[in-house]
Specification:
8 helices, single chain, 11 strands, alpha/beta, 5-stranded parallel β-sheet, 2 domains, Rossmann fold, Arc Repressor Mutant, subunit A, 4-stranded antiparallel β-sheet, 22% strand
Length: 230
């Protein structure tokens, strides 16, 4: 079952790495630290990470070389390059090597966190036109209906339904929901309001043949109503 989003932090400055690791963990990430390029390359090749933050000035193997090698090996982990190199040529080189985003030092942590959330949203499996039970869902037109009757969904309810559909064979954690909502500012309320939106969405799906089951201690699972447990 999925838990917190896993992140590889490749940074050779021990003080910065410790500070960033602590902040990222408070933001809900599970962090593994690589102090040099050789370790970063090995971990990216051998383990699955949802995201990676990669410094370019790493010892042993520089960050650009790490990036080129893991991309050549078909590693698709989204990578945010974090570096003091801020010239146009440096940014172009990083992006051409396979970086998904580029942030220069010094930086503010809220910007780093926002960029990581944006990368996660882009990497999240897309939901194509779906018909499950009596629910129809069209992400292109942002419309959903039950037995032909349109569902009136708020932006957060829509994002919640889309996330549950995209992970419909897996449990969706509260951390994943909070992260998906992180850049959405049209409705008030934080992670503590997740139960409220789950309750609202359950009511709207009552006639759809689908149910949102609470998996205690883990999160929520969208499944056929007949298989749902009270």
């Amino acid at each position: 079952m999925p838990s917190a989003m896993t992140l590889l932090l490749a940074e050779d400055d021990a003080i910065l790495a410790d500070a960033l690791s602590a902040q990222l963990k408070r933001a809900g990430f599970e962090v593994e630290h690589a102090p040099n390029g050789a370790v970063a390359e090995y971990l990216l090749m051998k383990q699955h990470f949802d995201l990676a933050v990669l410094d370019l000035g790493l010892p042993m193997v520089d960050g650009l070389t790490v990036l080129r090698r893991v991309r050549a090996a078909q590693c698709a982990t989204p990578v945010l390059v974090l570096t003091a190199l801020d010239s146009l040529d440096d940014r172009v080189a990083g992006l051409n090597a396979g970086a998904d985003d580029y942030l220069t030092k010094p930086f503010d942590f809220p910007e780093l966190e926002a960029r990581l959330h944006a990368l996660m949203r882009r990497a999240r499996p897309s939901v194509k036109l779906a018909e499950l039970g009596d629910l129809s869902f069209d992400p292109d037109t942002r419309r959903a209906a039950v037995r032909g009757e349109p569902l009136d969904l708020s932006p957060r309810e829509w994002m919640l339904l889309e996330l549950l559909l995209s992970q419909r064979d897996r449990v969706v954690t509260k951390d994943q929901i909070a992260q998906a909502w992180a850049l959405e500012r049209t409705e008030a309320g934080g992670a503590s309001s997740i139960e409220v939106y789950i309750h609202r969405l359950r009511r709207k799906l009552e006639q759809s043949g689908l149910a949102i089951r609470t998996v205690r201690g883990l999160g929520y699972l969208l499944e056929a109503d007949a298989a749902a447990k009270p």
